[in-house]
Every structure is written in structure tokens, then in C-alpha cells.
Amino acid sequence: MTAVSAADRDAQKRAAAERAVVEVEDGMVLGLGSGSTAALVIAALAARVAAGLRVAGIPTSERSAALARRLGVPLTTFAEHRRIDLTIDGADQVERGTLALVKGLGGALLREKIVASASRRMIVVVDETKLVERLGDRTPLPLEIVPFGAEAVIERLAALEGRPELRRRDGKPFVTDNGNYIVDCHFAVITDPAALEARLAAIVGVVESGLFLGLASKVIVGTRGGVEEIAP
Ligand code: A5P
Q1: Which is it for the CA torsion 51, 42, 128, 198, positive or negative?
Q2: CATH number of the domain that residue 193 is part of
């Protein structure tokens, strides 16, 4: 298969984002994802809001919150709504057969997972480069960890053979919206994501992993041949 250009990927992301927003209904509480594809979702949603759609969104990052505010998408919080009707978010990897996901390259995985877990439905929007037969090291598996004791946590992660690397920005540890660190792990093929998730969760200091299992209700993929929908 020939490589997908950056322009093609952008067009695919936009097509997937616009298709997903068609599923938004008046009065819904929405989970607003993070990342470049989710930003296109927020923009498409803003166009519908400007045309009269009434929704309220719970953002998964400060960045998405700022974009939604700037584009006029009303925001809400869990204090107002314990349940979310529909979340639309991007992903870094989508396993075609199971819709298991790797997320968190943008560092928003914890809020993304809380929002996805509180949602009745989650639609994932991606370009075709994100589809994989098995989750693996096409992109790192990010983990959000507590800064206190980070060195010890990273040592325990190294024992799992994930080659953990503390994410840095401008030479300093990258700090999430929740004040935590991100460790990027590089596992080869992840043959049993649920078992890996359990082993990671058992390490005290790991807050969450970027494995999203059983959360996606549907994946909308922009491809060279048009938009494809994959349901479990
Ligand atoms: C943010 O933390 C991530 O989970 C994003 O959803 C993911 O990285 C996809 O981002 P893009 O749409 O920018 O590829």
C-alpha cells in the first residue's frame, strides 16, 4: 500500500469527524475528545450549534475546552451530568477485530478514559493509518503516573519489558492536565491487552493506561475510498 500523505490524512480525519457529528442529536450531553481529529469534531459540532443544535460538552483536556469555548460549543461538567450520551474521540491505534484502542499520544488519556467510561456510546474517529490487525508498537502505549516515586514506578515498568520512557517537553517531564507524568512504553505486539492492562493497573503509582478496552461502540475511519464504519 502506498504511503498516505499528510494532506490525505487530514482529509480522512475531517471526513470521519464530519460523519460522526451527524450522529449528534438535540439535547445530548457529549464527551469532547482531544487531539487533531477531535478538534475537527469540535469544529463540525460548532457549525451545527451555530445552526441551532442544543448540546453541552464535557471536554477531555484544557485544550479541547479552550477550542470549544472559542468556537461557541457550550460546556458542562460532571457536577451537572453524571452520564454522557455520546463521546466522540480520536485514537492512536485501533485493533480492527476488537475495537481495542491505544490512546494518549496527546497526553489526555486519563480524562479521555473517565469520559469514555461514563458514556453510553463512544464513537472513535481516525484516518486509515490508525487501523492495525494487532495493537503494538506502531505508537507507544502511554501511561499516566503520579510524579511521586516516578523513578520506582518506571523501574517496575521496565521489568514488564515495555522499555518505558518518561515523556519530556523542553527537557522537563511532560505534565498532564491532572498534574501527573506520562511514561511511554514500547511493547511489541500486545497479544493479550486485558492481561497487560491488569498488570499495569497492579503497579501502585500508575493512574491509568492508554489501553481502551471494550469502550468503543463504533469506529469511523476515513480512507482513500471513502468513510468506513466498523462496529464490534
Ligand atoms: C490524546 O491524548 C489522544 O488520545 C488522541 O485522541 C490521540 O492521540 C489521537 O490524536 P490525533 O487525532 O491527533 O491523531
Answers
A1: negative
A2: 3.30.70.260
Grid cell, residue 174, equals: 511532560
Please check whether residue 54 lies inside any domain of the structure. Answer: yes
Residue 1, domain member (yes or no): no
Structure confidence at residue 47 as a pLDDT band (50, 70, 90) = very high
- Taking the C-alpha atoms of residue 159 and residue 122, their distance in angstroms, rounded to an integer, is 33
Q: Is residue 152 part of a domain?
A: yes
Residues 63 and 21 in one domain: yes
Q: Closest residue (by CA) to atom 8 of ligand 1?
A: 105
Pocket around ligand 1: residues whose beta carbon is below 6 Å from it? 33-38, 89-92, 103-109, 112
Tell me: the pLDDT tens digits for 133-145?
999 989 999 999 9
Mutation choice for ligand 1 from 101, 103, 219, CB with most ligand atoms inside 8 A = 103
Task: Note whether 120 and 64 are same-domain residues.
Answer: yes
List the domain range (segments joined by +) for residue 139: 135-208
128: alpha, beta or left? (left if phi > 0; alpha if psi -120 to 50): alpha
